[in-house]
Amino acid sequence: MQQPGGAEAPEHRRAIGNTPSPRRRRSGIVREAASVVVAVLVLTWLLQTFVGRQYIVPSESMESTLHGCAGCTNDRIVIDKLSYTLGEAPRPGEVVVFKAPTQSWDENWTSPRSRNTFARGAQDVLSWFGFAPPDENDLVKRVVATAGQTVECHRATGTGVTVDGTPLHEPYIDAELQREDASTEQPGTPDPCHGADFGPITVPARSLWVMGDNRAHSADSRYHIEDQLQGTVPVSAVRGKVVAIIWPVSRWSTVATPNPQH
What we know:
With 262 residues, the protein is an alpha+beta fold. It contains 5 helices and 12 strands. Strands 1, 2, 3, 4, 9, 10, 11 and 12 form an 8-stranded antiparallel beta sheet that branches. A hairpin with an 8-residue loop joins strand 5 and strand 6 (162-163). The radius of gyration is 28 Å and the shape is elongated. The chain starts with 9 loop residues before the first helix and ends in an 8-residue tail after the last strand.
C-alpha cells in the first residue's frame, strides 16, 4: 500500500523491518535445539533415578533365566525402581539388582572408572543419564527369603532349600546345569543344596536372603555368611526389580517371578 505521491505506508516498512535475518533464524534454531536436548537429559535423569534403569548381566550366576558369561553377548536387563520407591517390599521369587552390601561381596570387583580425573568426571556425569554404569558393584539375584524367615539347606535331609522348615518349589532352576556340580561327593549325582550346607539363618528386619538360579555357580548369600550381615542384603541396597530382558533382540522377554514358597 502506498501513500499519495508513491511513499510507502508505515505499516509496510514495519513489516519489512520485522522479518528475521538468516543469522537470527539460525540462532533461534540453535536455542530451540539446546532446549530440546536439555529437556531430554532432564527427563532421562528423572527416569534413570526414579523409574527404571538398564544393567548388563555380569556373570552366569542367573542362568538360564538371565544369560551372562565372559566373552559372550550378555543380557541387557531393565529394572523397575518405582515400585520399591513407592513402598512395595521385595517379595520371594522376584529378581533384584542390588549394590554389594559388605566388602566380602566386592571380591574380584574393580571400579569401571578411569584413573584420569577428567575422564572419571565425565563417566560420573554420563552415569547420571544411564550412558555409563554407576561406580558401584551391582549384582543380580533372586529373593528366596524375607525379613523374619529362617532359611537353610542340609544335604542329609534331601529336601533342598527350606524356608521356615518348608521346602521351596523352584521351577527357575535348570537341573541340567546343576548335574556337574563339583561340590557333590559323587559328581553327576543330584545335590539338593547345589553346594555346601548352610543355616539356619534368620533374615533380620528390612533384609533379604538372595540366591542365584544357577546354584552351583553363584556366589550369593550362602558365600557371605561369615560377614557382619550373615550374607543377608538390606532392602536399602536394592536398586530395583528386574522386569524384562531388552537385549539382544532374540532374548526379548519379561522375567518370571514365581513365588518359591507357594
